[in-house]
Amino acid sequence: MQSSLRIVWIYPDLLSTYGDQGNVLVLEQRARRRGIPVEVVHVRSSDPVPEQGDIYLIGGGEDRPQILGAERLRRDGGLHRAIQRGASLLAVCAGYQIMGSVFGGEEGQPVPGIGLLDISSGRGERRSVGELAAEVDPSLGLPTLTGFENHMGVTRLGPGVTPLSRTLVGTGNGDGTEGCFAGKIIGTYLHGPALARNPALADLLLRWAAGPLPAIDDSWYERLRNERLGAVLKP
Amino acid sequence: MSQLPLRAQLASALGRTAATLSRATGRGDGSVIGGRVGLLLEPDLLRKLAHEKKLALVSATNGKTTTTRLIASALQELGEVATNAFGANMPAGHVSALSSNKAAPYGVLEVDEKYLPEVLSTTEAGVVTLMNLSRDQMDRAAEIWLLAQKWRRALAGKPAHVIANCDDPLVTWGASTAARVTWVAGGQRWHEDSWCCPECGGPLDRAEGIVNADWACRECTFSRPEPNWILDGEDAVDPRGDRWRLNLQLPGTANRSNAVIALATAAAFGLEPQRALPRLREVKSVAGRYTTVERDGRVMKLLLAKNPAGWLEAFDVTRPDRPIVLSVNAQGPDGRDTSWLWDVDYRILTGRHVYVTGERRLDLALRLDVAGVGFTLVDTFGQAVTALPPGDIDVIANYTAFQSIRTEFGRAV
């Protein structure tokens, strides 16, 4: 890591439809509260993706911006080089699908992704809209995932990735799992402020970039988590 | 004497009865139930009711209800106007509005963005007014790029005269297939949904923060059309170059933008600004928005904000020296997804006395905590009011939160 933690937000002009800025703000806050200096870089789709970032974020969006975003990331190559250097990445919804080999376009036509995750996505029969709760893969040691999904995607996971979680409520990938991870790349259908609802996931990304972290006051995060999980996981 | 066929007259009369019952039993303002009963009996009713009127349709993400009210007020200068004043903006509400005043020669209808193609095709309205498109209740609303595409298809080949805000690139794109467009430089505060060219996806280059600011795609020929009307600070500038000081009672930049668009729409009906403007100045509250209510010496100014662009406009109207109460729900009409809270920049509230309430107050509390804005969390709106000393209070709430405050404090309109 360099002197400050570099958080790179990819293409907010194309892919930031669902409060995706939230993930940027939460990472920034949680790093600063631990005394880690932070530099946030917003990369517009007309600009090159810098290779020297520590944590990369890409968000959700409509069909056309998703196709444009995939084309530009492929042409640019900066994100691929950053991942090879060991950077971590959180890819959300449309951004998650882009990381695979293929995803569904406006009419369901296959559109090539950028191949950073061993997944392939297509369009499902109906839109999945609502709260989601899921148990995270035990190897990551994270508490129950909570968030909101809104997508028509169905994602098949290949042998090169591990499911991020098993759904208790909601659709996720469409096969009983939600999201996936491989190395330091995490993909999820949970909307932009997913890290606000899952601060432990934010800390996992921060640890990958900055090493062990001291505990901080999580009371507002915990109150929101408890309320949301309580609303969907009734005993 | 109505020209409607007997079946349509019957359908419309039964609809009015249902509306009266809805109001009398306190279930609503009656504008939707009345129209639904009418539409069940006569699907062609809207077409028949519209056929007799000179009609304007008004659509946008934000400002629909207010602009509809401003245009309706202006057109009263020409004659009676039928309008859906309570924001019931789907076909059932349109039937209800038009059948409640069948003799009126004019109609001004607020139309939900998704329904615009259908309502335009049914009513064959002569004037269509389009203001802005931005992200809004994504769990149930259409994606806005797709929406603008549908507007393009609906307007192509129609004779309708379109009045459109050329400072919003997506609206410009949506309107530009129309045969005749009057372009209004109405401004655009929220830029987050228009960094990219709707035509080719290339980057839009925009001059920031300047009145009547130009924009153009860096990669294709799509660019801002020359405006016919311009909002310049407190003034509207008409196509002849004459300046009109707006002097509205409605507060804020967003309402000045709504007003210049209303003046351009009135002009499409042949009504000049010198006659239209005094009517706009009479409007001081629209369906409870901008209303001031009072309890025990607390004077509360109620603002409705349903999405990130709407919150920006609401902040513009609040006063930094006043305490502010924020109330957020996530019921069906609000959108069940609160992700949009993260698209609002709340840092403008730093240093103010902020109270947070509503069913999703914990979502908002965390949002403010991350923004570094101090606040007090309260379980109910009433607790915030009691906790504050007598004096002026700003209140911003989203849809059902706003309605519940209005219900508690009376439906002053």
TrEMBL record, chain A:
It comes from the Bacteria. InterPro entries: Class_I_gatase-like (IPR029062), CobQ_GATase1 (IPR033949), GATase_3 (IPR011698), Lipid_II_synth_GatD (IPR043702). SUPFAM superfamilies: Class I glutamine amidotransferase-like. It catalyses: L-glutamine + H2O = L-glutamate + NH4(+); beta-D-GlcNAc-(1->4)-Mur2Ac(oyl-L-Ala-gamma-D-Glu-L-Lys-D-Ala-D-Ala)-di-trans,octa-cis-undecaprenyl diphosphate + L-glutamine + ATP + H2O = beta-D-GlcNAc-(1->4)-Mur2Ac(oyl-L-Ala-D-isoglutaminyl-L-Lys-D-Ala-D-Ala)-di-trans,octa-cis-undecaprenyl diphosphate + L-glutamate + ADP + phosphate + H(+). Pfam families: GATase_3. The keyword Cell division does not apply. Forms a heterodimer with MurT. Belongs to the CobB/CobQ family. GatD subfamily. This is Lipid II isoglutaminyl synthase (glutamine-hydrolyzing) subunit GatD. It comes from Herbidospora galbida.
UniProtKB/TrEMBL annotation, chain B:
The active site is at D337. Keywords: ATP-binding, Cell shape, Cell wall biogenesis/degradation, Ligase, Metal-binding, Nucleotide-binding, Peptidoglycan synthesis, Zinc. Transmembrane segments: none annotated. The keyword Lipid metabolism does not apply. Zn(2+) binds at C197, C200, C217, C220. GO terms for molecular function: acid-amino acid ligase activity; ATP binding; carbon-nitrogen ligase activity on lipid II; zinc ion binding. Gene3D superfamilies: Mur-like, catalytic domain. GO terms for biological process: cell wall organization; peptidoglycan biosynthetic process; regulation of cell shape. It holds the Pfam family MurT_C. Coiled coil: none annotated. Pathway: Cell wall biogenesis; peptidoglycan biosynthesis. The keyword Metal-binding applies. Belongs to the MurCDEF family. MurT subfamily. Forms a heterodimer with GatD. PANTHER family: LIPID II ISOGLUTAMINYL SYNTHASE (GLUTAMINE-HYDROLYZING) SUBUNIT MURT (PTHR23135:SF7), MUR LIGASE FAMILY MEMBER (PTHR23135). This is Lipid II isoglutaminyl synthase (glutamine-hydrolyzing) subunit MurT. It comes from Herbidospora galbida. The gene is murT.
